[in-house]
Amino acid sequence: MPIEIRELIIKAEVSPDNSSGGGTAGAASAASGGSNATEALIALCVEKVLQVLKEKNER
User: Fold this and answer.
1) pLDDT for 9-39, tens place per residue?
2) Which domain holds residue 52?
3) SS3 label, residue 20
4) pTM for this structure?
5) Does 7 reside within a domain?
6) To which H or E segment does residue 51 belong?
7) Number of separate domains in the chain
């Protein structure tokens, strides 16, 4: 008989150290590039949030 796992726990730790070379390095450099880059990053984030909310309401 197969076992089904219905719960998944994911733990993440965020550190304030900016010297890490992780996947967020591109976003961090784009945000520090100037006000245009910051506005573009904010617009992208808003678009993603609105998309998630739309998908949630469709369900």
Assistant:
1) 888 888 887 665 555 545 444 445 568 888 8
2) 27-58
3) coil
4) 0.41
5) no
6) helix 35-58
7) 1
Angle at 52 between CA 46 and CA 23, to 5 degrees: 70
**CA-CA distance, 27 to 18, in Å (whole number)?**
12
The percent of the chain in helix, strand and coil, each rounded to the nearest 5, is: 55, 0, 45
CB 18 within 8 A of CB 28: yes
Q: List CB contacts of 27: < 8 A, sequence separation 6 or more.
A: 41
Query: Tell me, what DSSP letter sits at residue 27?
Result: H
Cα separation, 23 vs 40, in Å, equals: 18
